[in-house]
Write a structure and sequence with these properties.
Elements: H1 11-19, E1 23-27, E2 33-36, H2 38-43, H3 48-51, H4 56-60, H5 67-75, E3 80-88, E4 93-103, E5 106-113, H6 115-157, H7 167-197, E6 206-208, H8 210-227, E7 230-235, E8 244-246, H9 248-264, E9 269-277, E10 281-288, H10 322-332, E11 337-342, E12 346-354, H11 359-378
Helix pairs in contact: 6-7, 7-10, 8-9, 9-10
The chain binds adenosine-5'-diphosphate (ADP).
Adenosine-5'-diphosphate binds near residues 261, 301, 306, 308 and 312.
Length: about 375
């Protein structure tokens, strides 16, 4: 064990340092090793006795030249911490968290071996990647047969290939068709989630006039609202909105999802869309008079696969991914999403988008461009 220079330090301190399962070295400002414990000597395939008094840079430098920078930092009285620092020993590379501290008249280096954690992390990362790849390939491959099933069921139901003999047959075919539609939605949603999570979803941000985009979508959704006897309306802003910076298709996807949910969970009454102009963003509200959401569940509705039991009768059943996708898309476009709601009174789902040319819009554009560039670099 290394020799302690100070007689005042109790003997058992020396033992504690010696048996600690981390590597410990102290050195003076002439770079001589003062103390080195068993564990550190073990890493270096030597003994403390042999190493005390040697030049620390000579002892450690060959493991990774960058360690000289750490030693110099401590010599210059700067504490330093490096995570997953690679040291190349004779037999294999190992990873250490290294802490360099400044003590009176000497420097201290602590080496915590984190090789097994690093290997575990790498394994997890590669498992995660294979899982993502599997999901995206599987969902891609599922799309073709689902489309075929839907197409053929449609033909049969329209009696294009013969008469449906009994009402029961018709009922079962319709159930099969609605099942295939649900499956289709699920696969689409899973594909979107995997695209966003793997940062493969592209955003084509443009400066856009918002009012016509909302108006068109509301027009397209009118039939669905009328079938449900729900009044769907876009309240036009009193004065013209400034241009906003959005990917128009993704924006439409978010708002369509919110309107779709509002119609789904509003047995009677209305769904109103309105906009509010704020400092650097526009807020879009989708307000319904439906079943509402209890306060303690309101944050959770944006989580993956979250569905409220009471609100999802089998015919209403979605995928539980819609709002999660909306949140991810909105945040990518530089906005936020939220809800305020009261059970049996209705819900107000809102999200924000940046006004073109604002610092918020510029920052968002930079991040999106950077991500697209990283994606190209990775390929
Ligand atoms: P789903 O595919 O189930 O609609 P979402 O992520 O879109 O998935 O929604 C998650 C859950 O949030 C829904 O199952 C429902 O319980 C609740 N929810 C969403 N929108 C509304 C709404 N407008 N009114 C009441 N509950 C809602």
């Amino acid at each position: 064990m290394g020799v302690f220079e100070f007689d005042t330090i109790p003997k058992y301190y020396e033992d504690i340092v010696d048996i600690a399962p981390i590597g410990i070295i102290t050195f003076d400002y002439l770079e001589n090793i003062l103390i080195i414990n068993q564990q550190m000597a073990f890493y270096l395939n030597s003994s403390p006795k042999e190493l005390v008094g040697k030049n620390i840079k000579a002892v450690l430098g060959y493991l990774n030249p960058e360690i000289l920078i750490i030693i110099d930092a401590v010599k210059n009285k700067t504490s330093i911490f490096k995570e997953f620092f690679s040291l190349k020993f004779k037999d294999k590379e190992q990873f250490f968290n290294i802490k360099g501290s400044v003590l009176p008249e000497q420097g201290l280096l602590i080496f915590e071996n984190v090789t097994s954690i690093k290997e575990y992390q790498d394994q997890l990362k590669s498992l995660d990647q294979s899982k993502d790849e599997f999901i995206s390939i599987a969902s891609h491959d599922l799309r073709t047969p689902i489309t075929a099933i839907r197409g053929y069921l449609d033909m049969v139901l329209k009696e294009e290939v013969g008469v449906i003999a009994t009402p029961k047959m018709k009922e079962y075919l319709e159930l099969a068709r609605s099942g295939s539609l649900r499956l289709n939605d699920l696969v689409q949603d899973i594909l979107s989630v995997s695209r966003i999570e793997q940062k493969r979803m592209r955003f084509n941000l443009k400066n856009v006039e918002l009012e016509p985009v909302i108006e068109n979508l509301v027009k397209q959704t009118q039939i669905e609202a009328q079938q449900k006897n729900v009044n769907l309306e876009f309240i036009y802003p009193k004065s013209k909105l400034p241009l906003v910076q959005i990917d128009q298709n993704r924006f439409t996807e978010v708002l369509a999802n919110l309107i779709g949910n509002a119609l789904k969970f509003t047995p009677r009454g209305s769904v109103i869309i309105k906009t509010i102009l704020r400092n650097d963003h526009v807020r879009i509200d989708c307000i319904d008079t439906g079943i509402g959401i209890a306060f303690d569940k309101q944050k959770q509705v944006f989580k993956k696969f979250f569905q409220l039991d009471s609100s999802t009768s089998s015919q209403n059943k979605g995928t539980g991914l819609g709002l999660y996708i909306c949140k991810m898309i909105t945040e990518k476009m530089g906005g936020r999403i939220g809800v305020s709601s009261a059970p049996q009174k209705g819900s107000d789902f809102f999200f924000t988008i940046p006004i073109s040319g604002t610092p918020l819009a510029k920052r968002t554009l930079e991040i999106i461009q950077q991500e697209a560039q990283n994606h190209v670099d990775q390929k």
